[in-house]
Specification:
Layout (H helix, E strand, L loop, with lengths): L1 H42 L2 H11 L6 H11 L4 H23 L19 H32 L5 H30 L6 H33 L2 H38 L8 H20 L5 H4 L2 E4 L2 E5 L6 E3 L10
Helix pairs in contact: 1-5, 1-6, 2-3, 4-5, 5-6, 6-7, 7-8, 8-9
Length: about 325
């Protein structure tokens, strides 16, 4: 009996150690993304860079000094567009190179198979890592927009606390999903299979979850504000959440079936398992694209904000004055 008890205690201790290590890993990953995004904000502080240049080369007729800072201040809504465009451009470029050099089949490889060989590997890694940093910027600005929006609503303290908690949880889960992108880009499937699949799991599982949470937040905003733009945004978000969830189920089932049957039969995608292989690859592409396109639903909210380097300004509904935004990754203070 003593041996059984000691064995049970040892197993429980081992499980607790595993949980603690997992929590520490997630915290370290979030802090790493946070620090890198802070640095990226400072490097990409384009209005201030242009302002410094104009101080040394002052010219009243200089269009750059007049127009570009104003353009950046009022064009925060372009951030989701740039992020989506970068990812799609990276996918199409690496796919074209991989097929052109016969590194993969034309119809139809897994997404990361288009970036597992040289030279497309470098393009895939750089493009996805930059896109992941841009994703973090989108996530943090969306978090601040929702936080300030809810702070202006006439909600009970308990209700406000509940939705603020939902917003914070969405922020953390979104960063975990983005960390999966870092892993996908850094660890190629042909050389480091386990971390690559872990990254795919984080991105493809937590991505649709975050889509549903964002949809719920937008629905609550619509119920309080009763504005058409919130209803349209909600309908787009709920449709994309449903589609991404269905695609996740199809991809998971077909991918697992393909791997299992391939082990049993020793077949490849070119013979008896061709149909299930194509179902798996096509659903993966569509799943990735649906999660990426979800960012475009942030555009209406971002149009209400102004960007000045690190600091963003937000205009409350019915107000003509801009309100200074709260922290963005701790980069600025209110």
């Amino acid at each position: 009996m003593a041996l059984v008890k000691s064995g049970t205690i040892a197993i429980k201790t081992k499980n607790m150690l595993g949980v603690n290590l997992s929590i520490s890993f997630i915290q370290a990953a979030y802090n790493s993304i946070k620090n890198w995004t802070k640095l990226f904000y400072k490097i990409m502080d384009i209005p201030k860079v242009i302002e410094l240049v104009c101080l040394f080369d002052r010219d009243d007729d200089d269009i750059v000094c007049k127009i570009v800072p104003s353009l950046f201040n009022r064009s925060l809504w372009l951030l989701p567009v740039v992020t989506v465009s970068l990812v799609l451009m990276t996918f199409s470029t690496t796919y074209g190179i991989a097929v052109g050099l016969n590194h993969t089949q034309a119809v139809f490889p897994y997404v990361t198979k288009t970036g597992s060989a040289v030279p497309e590997r470098g393009i895939f890694t750089i493009g996805i890592i930059i896109a992941a940093i841009l994703f973090c910027m989108n996530i943090e600005i969306r978090y601040e927009y929702v936080r300030l929006n809810f702070s202006q609503m006439s909600l009970t303290p308990a209700e406000k606390a509940r939705w603020m908690t939902t917003n914070t949880m969405t922020l953390y889960l979104s960063h975990i999903s983005v960390f999966g992108l870092f892993m996908l880009a850094s660890f190629q499937i042909d050389t480091m299979n386990v971390p690559h699949h872990l990254g795919a799991f984080l991105t493809f599982v937590f991505g649709p979850v975050c889509c549903w949470l964002h949809s719920a937040i937008t629905w609550k905003t619509y119920k309080e504000e009763r504005k058409t733009e919130f209803l349209i945004t909600f309908l787009c978000q709920i449709a994309m959440s449903f589609v991404s969830t269905c695609l996740l189920i199809i991809f998971s089932g077909s991918f697992g079936s393909y791997k299992h049957q391939r082990l049993l039969q020793g077949s490849t995608q070119t013979d008896t398992l061709r149909d299930v292989f194509l179902t798996s690859t096509i659903s993966e592409w569509l799943l990735a694209i649906s999660i990426i396109l979800f960012l475009l639903t942030f555009i209406p909210g971002f149009k209400k904000m102004e960007f000045d380097g690190i600091v963003t300004k937000w205009k409350a509904p019915g107000s003509e004055k801009s309100v200074l935004c709260g922290r963005i990754l701790g980069c600025c203070n209110v």
